Known about the structure:
two-stranded parallel ribbon; UDP-galactose 4-epimerase, domain 1; disordered N terminus; 8 helices; alpha/beta
Amino acid sequence: MLPSFPGFVRIFIATAHLYGPGDNFDLQKSHVIPALMRKIHLAKLLEDGKWQDVLSDLNQNTQDQAQAILDPFGISAKNVEIWGTGTPMREFLWSEDMADACVFILDNVDFTDLAREKQEVRNTHINIGSGEEVSIADLARKIQKIVGFTGELTFNTDKPDGTPRKLTDVSKLHGLGWKHTINLDQGLERIYQWYLSTTT
């Protein structure tokens, strides 16, 4: 825990949803981008009849074993099921952009930059994000295009949507001179190539 004494200022950061190299692609425990990407990737392998690659990806020995994993997640050669309506909006940030923003803040920001009306601020925070949002449905379609899956994406509206919208206000950080460099389309391409490099 950080000490608290006169003149000591803590700057806290709050980030958007992060994704990037080293992400967790576990079907049960991963966040939205790696979860959707792996599901759609597996569906693409099935679509192409690449059962050996499916078995390798899932670390299974038989098609029956693999099918027992795929079915609960709604993954098939013709379809990928996505929980909810697809309407919630989310903001994403490339993980290396987040790291760069943290270094920028350490090098360039002190409490005088954040003080309002030149009054001392003991504890404050800075949002780190892209300031851009996308619906889960559009995100899934972007991933589908990158992966090359030609089957259907269906939305299971019996499943929960979660929070309707999560968007950070990044005007403070932009005003200090930092902006993200990797947009979502670029980041999705990069993370898919990274994932492929770990599965071959």
